[in-house]
Amino acid sequence: MIIATEKFFASRDDNPSVGLLFVVGEETGGDGMAAFAEYASNVTFRAGIFGEPTEGKLATGHKGSLGLTLNATGRSAHSAYPQLGLSAIHYLSQAIVLMNTLEPALPRSDLLGPSTLNIGTIRGGLASNVVAPNATAGVSIRIARSENGSVEAVRDMISGVISPVISEFVAQGGTFDATFSEAFYPAQILDTGIPGLEEAPVFYGTDIPKLPNVEQRYLFGAGTIEVAHTPNEQLSQEELVKGAEAYGLILRHLFPGN
């Protein structure tokens, strides 16, 4: 991005209004972008080029996002006398199974395919010979629809399918909280049409919805998401060079001629 911007300015006789923004916390709540959006709340940006690994293609859209935390509290007991306890793990696992059976019924779109569920974390219990008094799970839902109400529809579907398990657990004296994240958004349809760049959808989420006052939203980057968050995460020199060239192409499209 920096190299592309420097080369772009070097090729111009005028002084286009271009800024570079690098934010923190994109993977853990988007605090950086949220802070900038508040800072620039009175500004409308003509365009924004957002960087994510898109395999060198301009993203046509990306899925929405909704988080869910399941937290169950039961009663501990010796495993030889399970009737004296109330296993939080047992009921949490039932809720997870029910959510997974729901996945084929979640909304889908022609552009982004199916909505998906991922149970990313499970924690709980004290020892193998103790009825588990607590259990928690973290869930990430990727939503394929962009219409208003898409997130709420998915939230209602999940709440409905796990409701019987929660009711049964609570009736036996346990507590079971299903807490959806306050930060969520539906699928995002993005701007495209840059001559010379291929186009394709991506299925992850980004910080784009946290900066609402952008008229044209482009998503592009070098590398592939398929190696992100893995021990083999990497970028080749060729990808870096082509990525810088492509960012320059987008800038020239937004600012044609001197």
From TrEMBL:
Gene Ontology molecular function, alphabetical: hydrolase activity; metal ion binding
Keyword Transferase: no
Name of the molecule in the record: Peptidase M20 dimerisation domain-containing protein
Cofactor field: Zn(2+)
Domain of life: Eukaryota
Parts forming coiled coils: none
Keywords: Hydrolase, Metal-binding, Zinc
Domain Peptidase M20 dimerisation: start-end pairs: 60-158
InterPro entries linked to this entry: Bact_exopeptidase_dim_dom (IPR036264), Peptidase_M20 (IPR002933), Peptidase_M20_dimer (IPR011650), Peptidase_M20A (IPR050072)
Homology family: Belongs to the peptidase M20A family.
